[in-house]
Amino acid sequence: MIAFKFSRIWSRFQSHPCQGFFRNLSSLMAVQPIVISGPSGSGKSTLLTRLFKEFPNCFAFSVSHTTRKPREGEIHGKDYFFVAMEDFEKMISEGSFLEDAQFSGNRYGTSKMAVEMIQKSGKLCVLDVEVNGVKNIKQTDLNAKYIFVKPPSLEDLKKRLEGRGTESMESLQKRLDTAHEALQYAEQPGSYDHVIVNDDVDVAYDQLRKIVIDDIKSLSNGNA
Ligand SMILES: Nc1ncnc2c1ncn2[C@@H]1O[C@H](COP(=O)(O)OP(=O)(O)OP(=O)(O)O)[C@@H](O)[C@H]1O
User: Fold this and answer.
1) Is there a domain that residue 211 lies in?
2) Could you tell me if residue 92 is inside a domain?
3) Does any ligand 1 atom lie closer than 6 A to the CB of residue 163?
4) What is the CATH number of the domain that holds 144?
5) Tell me, what's the pLDDT at 47?
6) In a 3-state reduction of DSSP, which class is residue 198?
7) Mind listing the pLDDT tens digit for each residue in 174-219?
8) Which Gene3D superfamilies does this UniProt record tie to the protein (predicted)?
9) In testing the pocket of ligand 1, which one of 160, 167, 172, 198 has its CB within 8 Å of the most ligand atoms?
């Protein structure tokens, strides 16, 4: 009975799409990080939460650098890399960031080092960035896979943001204004490798799963 259970568990472990991938460390460095983008409220977090839940050992977000002070409970290296402004600027001048931005007087950036740390840990790096981040990352040598999550319509987007209950009137309007820019950029040929229209969430998730998992499977089959 125990042997039967063990063999069932072992066969599931063996067939898990990440297993062969983890065995070959050199192949890790060949896996393209995933850059996911889309208007606020399009469903990026919803889709990624599903993906991370289904494959808890495969994916990780990179840890950003910031010049803002840590909040209570935040851990350096886990929540953020907290750095002084002069160190942040030095990193910019050295070309260490894939993208950086400024909010409320603080600087934030995704470093190449943070992405490499995830790749070395045996996970596939996921970057959730807004449209300017996508444009910036494209200027670097990061060989990423770009995925755009598109709402079925602006009307749906508005309803979802209202339904989420996280926005004030002002921030809702700001997000809808920004959505225009993101949707226009996504219309440009070559802007993204994949566009997922998040109408039915199950259909959208299946598309994301296929895009991501097929790559990992091909690596585990020794193609990398
Ligand atoms: N296919 C869908 N149909 C209906 N509602 C959806 C769908 N996908 C996501 N939602 C809902 O829309 C809201 C916005 O989704 P989510 O928070 O995942 O968006 P997001 O793109 O991650 O936004 P942000 O960039 O602001 O973090 C949530 O309340 C979510 O439950």
Assistant:
1) yes
2) no
3) yes
4) 3.40.50.300
5) 97
6) coil
7) 899 999 999 999 999 999 999 999 999 999 999 999 999 866 665 4
8) Guanylate Kinase phosphate binding domain (3.30.63.10), P-loop containing nucleotide triphosphate hydrolases (3.40.50.300)
9) 160
Residue 100 lies in a domain: no
Tell me the ipTM for this assembly. Answer: 0.96
The residue segments making up the domain with residue 137 are 24-62+123-223
- Return the residue whose CA atom lies nearest to atom 16 of ligand 1: 43
Q: How many domains does the chain have?
A: 1
* DSSP code per residue over 136-169: HHHTSS---EEEEEE-S-HHHHHHHHHHHT---H
Helices (H) and strands (E) in the chain, counts: 10, 9
Kindly give the number of the ligand 1 atom that is closest to the alpha carbon of 152: 1
Rounded-to-integer distance, Cα 127 and Cα 198, Å: 18
Residue 48 pLDDT more than 70?
yes
Atom of ligand 1 nearest to the CA of 199: 1
CA 196 to ligand 1 center in whole angstroms: 13
The answer to whether residue 6 is domain-embedded is no
- Whether the CB of 45 sits within 6 Å of ligand 1: yes
